[in-house]
């Protein structure tokens, strides 16, 4: 991703991912939620740490010794972030967390919030229900909702 792929529009940040595995550009937005982490502010703080003398436009750059460097973050380093996050927060089997963990989590959370399968497919850029079902974790919220639907019938 490049710096120019991120558009800060004040109350929302719009991110375009131009180069995907399916060669179909994707766009998503970032907003501040109701929790204590204000994601827009975190992004802006990260962006301000960027050195002015960087000759490339890569969005993600290395951060060492409490400051940004000019070195871009490589794909191998980037792909280890979910594992490092899992280790940091003490999850079991952190080696099982990959870049797809973000896609799986977002699909599961979206479904748990009440979205239907069509919305989840659009969000993830999937065409078939079976692919979506492979990303959705077996969640307790889904099981409770299914039980309610069975009981009501």
Automatic annotation (TrEMBL):
<dbReference type="Pfam" id="PF00589">
    <property type="entry name" value="Phage_integrase"/>
</dbReference>
<dbReference type="InterPro" id="IPR011010">
    <property type="entry name" value="DNA_brk_join_enz"/>
</dbReference>
<dbReference type="InterPro" id="IPR013762">
    <property type="entry name" value="Integrase-like_cat_sf"/>
</dbReference>
<dbReference type="GO" id="GO:0015074">
    <property type="term" value="P:DNA integration"/>
</dbReference>
<dbReference type="GO" id="GO:0006508">
    <property type="term" value="P:proteolysis"/>
</dbReference>
<dbReference type="InterPro" id="IPR001995">
    <property type="entry name" value="Peptidase_A2_cat"/>
</dbReference>
<protein>
    <submittedName>
        <fullName>Phage integrase domain containing protein</fullName>
    </submittedName>
</protein>
<feature type="domain" description="Tyr recombinase">
    <location>
        <begin position="1"/>
        <end position="148"/>
    </location>
</feature>
<dbReference type="InterPro" id="IPR050090">
    <property type="entry name" value="Tyrosine_recombinase_XerCD"/>
</dbReference>
<dbReference type="GO" id="GO:0003677">
    <property type="term" value="F:DNA binding"/>
</dbReference>
<dbReference type="InterPro" id="IPR002104">
    <property type="entry name" value="Integrase_catalytic"/>
</dbReference>
<keyword id="KW-0233">DNA recombination</keyword>
<dbReference type="InterPro" id="IPR001969">
    <property type="entry name" value="Aspartic_peptidase_AS"/>
</dbReference>
<dbReference type="GO" id="GO:0006310">
    <property type="term" value="P:DNA recombination"/>
</dbReference>
<feature type="domain" description="Peptidase A2">
    <location>
        <begin position="107"/>
        <end position="121"/>
    </location>
</feature>
<keyword id="KW-0238">DNA-binding</keyword>
<dbReference type="GO" id="GO:0004190">
    <property type="term" value="F:aspartic-type endopeptidase activity"/>
</dbReference>
